[in-house]
Design a protein that fits this description.
mainly alpha; 2 domains; two-stranded antiparallel sheet; about 10% strand
Length: about 150
C-alpha cells in the first residue's frame, strides 16, 4: 500500500514536469492507468493526483481523450470545439464587432452558427471570462470586457 499523501507527490512530479517543459502546453498527460503503473499506486491515487492539477488549472479534461496540459494555444489551431468557438469570438472581439453596451450573441445563436452543443458554447464563454475578454451579467448576457 502506498504511503498517505502519495497523490500529492505524484502531482508534484507532474507539476515539475510541466514547469521544466517535459510536458508542454497542449501535451496529453499520462492516463490514470499509466500513472498507476509508473508509481505503483492504485488508479484512485493517480486520479487524485490529476484532480489536484485540474483544480490548479494546469490540466484540462478533453472528453473521450484524457487530460491535457493547459495553455500555450497562441498560434496553434484550437484542439477542442469550445476552443474553436472561443477563438472565433475572440477574433470578432478584437475586430471590434461587438459594442460594449450590447450583448454578444446568445448561446442559442452560437449553437446554430457553429453547430455545437449549448455546453460547448458555455465552455467557450467561460474561457473568455477566465482570460478577461468577456463579462457575463446574469440575466442580461455576455458583454465585451471593458478595455
Amino acid at each position: 500500500m502506498a504511503p498517505r499523501g502519495t497523490y500529492r507527490q505524484i502531482a508534484d512530479h507532474l507539476r515539475h514536469a510541466i514547469a521544466r517543459g517535459e510536458l508542454r502546453a497542449g501535451d496529453m498527460v499520462p492516463s490514470e492507468l499509466a500513472l498507476a503503473g509508473q508509481y505503483s499506486v492504485s488508479r484512485g491515487t493517480a486520479r487524485a493526483a490529476l484532480a489536484v492539477l485540474l483544480d490548479e488549472g494546469l490540466v484540462e479534461v478533453i472528453a473521450g481523450q484524457g487530460r491535457r496540459v493547459v495553455g500555450g494555444e497562441e498560434g496553434r489551431p484550437p484542439r477542442t470545439e469550445w476552443g474553436r468557438v472561443a477563438a472565433a469570438l475572440r477574433e470578432r472581439l478584437d475586430a471590434g464587432e461587438f459594442a460594449a453596451d450590447l450583448p454578444m450573441p446568445s448561446e442559442a445563436a452560437l449553437v446554430a452558427e457553429f453547430g455545437v452543443s449549448r455546453n460547448t458554447v458555455r465552455r467557450a464563454y467561460r474561457h473568455l471570462v477566465e482570460v478577461g475578454a468577456v463579462v457575463v451579467r446574469h440575466g442580461a448576457g455576455a458583454f465585451p470586457a471593458p478595455r
